[in-house]
Design goal:
With 231 residues, the protein is mainly α. The chain is 65% helix and 0% strand. Helix 4 crosses helix 5, helix 5 crosses helix 12 and helix 10 crosses helix 12. The radius of gyration is 19 Å and the shape is globular. The chain starts with a helix and ends in a 10-residue tail after the last helix. The N terminus is likely disordered.
């Protein structure tokens, strides 16, 4: 009877497969600040916002990043990533959504670096061979390389990388303490989850934003006298 109980318990359990572990590992690594896409060099216009005093503490940083996620590049890129993940050709559209020279530089530089960095994964390379090495937007590169991995998780990973880039820049610029930065990232969890869920089923004609101040910040950043970041 004891042996039978053990067999029954084992049969009823659905363990996480090796493939699941590998997929999670890959996404965590690709979204990590240690993954060499050059995210540390970009502030998404945040450097100008800090200079103007618009982002000066954890509360104003949280508001700024939430808007970027819900109404700006975070949401737009997530929708584009989802369509790229499904095999659609959205690269030119993704490049066209960059509202300024620096925004385009940001997405193309990270896209190019990402495509170089995934050379350790032959299957990811095979999925991205049709993409132009120096003219691929970052969300398109990420979504295309991640085909075969669960889209919901891919979106969360990408948005994590996006928010980490912004918060990390603010920690250095304001400056803020590491604990403040972590508190902001924790507070962003609901916004990230909401954007990811919506992006998974959004049509391309739902792309749009209302973050004009963000676009102006990126444009003003081009002419800042002193700059720590490329964008």
């Amino acid at each position: 009877m004891r042996a039978a109980t053990i067999i029954t318990t084992t049969t009823m359990t659905t363990p996480t497969t090796t493939t699941d572990h590998a997929a999670l590992w890959r996404l965590l690594l690709w979204a990590s600040p240690a993954f060499p896409v050059g995210a540390f060099a970009h502030s998404h216009g945040l450097e100008w916002a800090v200079e103007q005093g618009e982002v000066r503490d954890p509360a104003t940083l949280l508001a700024w990043v939430q808007d970027a996620l819900r109404h700006g590049a975070g949401r737009t890129d997530a929708i584009l990533l989802a369509h790229a993940h499904r095999g659609e050709d959205v690269n030119n559209l993704a490049i066209a959504t960059a509202a300024s020279r620096e925004r385009q530089l940001e997405t193309l530089a990270q896209g190019e670096a990402f495509l170089r960095a995934i050379r350790a994964w032959p299957e990811a390379i095979a999925r991205t061979t049709h993409l132009p090495a120096e003219r691929t937007a970052y969300p398109v590169a990420f979504g295309t390389a991640a085909r075969g991995l669960p889209l919901a998780q891919v979106l969360i990973a990408y948005l994590q990388a996006f928010t980490q880039m912004l918060v990390s820049a603010a920690v250095r610029l304001v400056p803020l303490g590491q604990s403040d930065g972590l508190a902001v990232l924790a507070a962003l969890e609901p916004a990230v989850a909401k954007v990811a869920v919506e992006a998974e089923t959004s049509d391309l004609d739902e792309i749009g934003g209302a973050c004009f101040r963000f676009d102006l910040a990126a444009m003003h950043h081009e002419t800042q006298y002193t700059r720590l970041f490329r964008t």
